[in-house]
Design brief:
Blueprint lengths: L1 E2 L22 H4 L1 H7 L2 H17 L3 H11 L6 E2 L5 H8 L8 H11 L8
Parallel strand pairs: 1-2
Helix pairs in contact: 3-4, 3-6
Length: 118
């Protein structure tokens, strides 16, 4: 199982290095969280994941979850949501499959990433 597969909103496209933190967001409400994840290196990976999601035509959150589900050692992602819209978006993952090329590209992109929320 994977815990926090969307990295607390980072892989949902909620945050970027160049924008203000959204009102009511985890990062705005919890400065310690933002301090842990507001790293230039993390945003390099997020930009690459965003590029792949645009090429495929799905949201970053759908791509992140589909990527996890394609991993043969993962039985289930533990996905949280703050709004009904996020639950609906996450449920649409059942309609999404990524091919082996995209899966391998994501693995290659992130193989040196040592991101951790905790």
């Amino acid at each position: 199982m994977t815990y926090t597969p969307l990295m607390g909103g980072l892989l949902a496209g909620k945050y970027s290095k160049d924008t203000l933190l959204p009102e009511g967001s985890r990062a705005r409400c919890n400065p310690n969280y933002w301090e842990r994840v507001n790293k230039t290196a993390y945003f390099k990976y997020i930009e690459g994941i965003g590029r792949i999601s645009e090429e495929i035509g799905i949201s970053m959150s759908q791509l992140a979850i589909a990527w996890i589900l394609k991993n043969p050692v993962v039985t289930a992602p533990i996905i949280g949501a703050s709004t009904v819209e996020q639950v609906e978006e996450n449920c649409r993952i059942l309609e999404v499959k990524i091919d082996d090329r995209d899966y391998l590209e994501l693995n290659d992109l992130t193989k040196t990433c040592e991101a951790s929320l905790y």
